[in-house]
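4.2 Preliminary Data

To establish feasibility before requesting continued support, the project team ran the inverse folding procedure on a target of 317 residues. The structure was first converted into the token representation described in Section 3, and no sequence information of any kind was made available to the design step. The complete token record follows.
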């Protein structure tokens, strides 16, 4: 039964991602905005729902390690593994706006997260590392400005007129909602079943936490980005990753910090360095190789960095 539920969860993830991409693309055309912006906002928020639930639950229970560790681990997983794997399979295109605005904003938000959260370690300010309630309020204000700016920007992409038979708006919205439900339910089934299976096989709880649970809340981003890239919607895939990372920090940690101040006691300098490196690699790829895309070799480099980081985590369990 455990294996059966694992397969059901995987099937829901695949179907949910397909419906979400189709619905989001149709909404982009109907609303007259680019697929990147839809990926950055609607899809980015939708695929961040598991992180939101896990982090808020941790904050409500007074467990800051869960809230902070979940966001930090998910953001690293999103860029280095998901975007790296996506680029390795299908090079991901970048627009001039991605290079000059979207990727720098992601790097800036990452710097804010680390700068505020590790103020004591880095600058000797304060008594301990962590995010206070006023940090949370500041993050939520920045999130509101980010959303406002995202929806005000740009014209629809050229592919907006490519669909000769666009879906009706209510059908597209239904596809998005059904797709999100499938991703979240499928992700929960997959993580729970995989965890149960690993315990049956005698794998330690620490190993499960570092592998299955760390990547589990990022399954929606993984499925959505891969399906979008394979369908030629790589701008939606890139927007999904960048949007999810910004949402994770500004909305999820902002809300969690308002509920209870968050300690960074469990965040090591290696964790912080890898998170910063993941954002900096995106900026580097924007100005190296073929500037209009993330190439396969660049995706391979990201996967190697991800593998090295996970090896470090395993040997230090």
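Position-by-position output of the design step:
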């Amino acid at each position: 039964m455990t294996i059966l539920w694992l397969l059901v969860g995987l099937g829901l993830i695949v179907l949910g991602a397909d419906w979400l991409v189709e619905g989001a693309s149709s909404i982009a055309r109907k609303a007259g905005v680019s697929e990147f912006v839809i990926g950055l906002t609607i899809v980015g928020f939708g695929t961040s729902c598991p992180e939101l639930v896990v982090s808020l639950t941790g904050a409500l229970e007074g467990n800051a390690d869960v809230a902070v560790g979940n966001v930090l681990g998910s953001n690293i997983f999103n860029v280095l593994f998901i975007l790296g794997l996506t680029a390795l399979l299908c090079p991901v295109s970048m627009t001039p706006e991605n290079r000059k605005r979207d990727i720098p904003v992601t790097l800036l938000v990452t710097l804010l997260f680390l700068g505020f959260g590790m103020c004591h370690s880095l600058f000797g300010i304060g008594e301990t590392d962590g995010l206070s309630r006023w940090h949370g309020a500041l993050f939520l204000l920045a999130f509101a400005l980010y959303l406002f700016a995202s929806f005000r920007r740009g014209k629809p992409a050229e592919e907006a007129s490519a669909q000769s038979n666009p879906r009706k708006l209510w059908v597209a919205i239904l596809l998005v909602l059904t797709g999100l439900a499938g991703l979240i339910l499928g992700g929960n089934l997959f993580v729970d079943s995989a965890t149960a299976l690993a315990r049956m096989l005698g794998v330690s709880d620490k190993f499960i936490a570092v592998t299955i649970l760390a990547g589990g809340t990022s399954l929606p981003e993984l499925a959505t980005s891969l399906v979008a890239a394979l369908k030629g919607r790589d701008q939606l895939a890139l927007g999904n990753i960048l949007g999810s990372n910004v949402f994770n920090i500004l909305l999820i940690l902002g809300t969690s910090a308002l509920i209870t101040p968050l300690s960074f006691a469990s965040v090591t300098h290696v964790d912080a360095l890898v998170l910063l490196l993941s954002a900096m690699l995106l900026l580097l790829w924007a100005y190296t190789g073929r500037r209009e895309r993330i190439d396969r070799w660049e995706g391979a480099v990201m996967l190697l960095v991800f593998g090295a980081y996970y090896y470090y985590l395993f040997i230090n369990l």
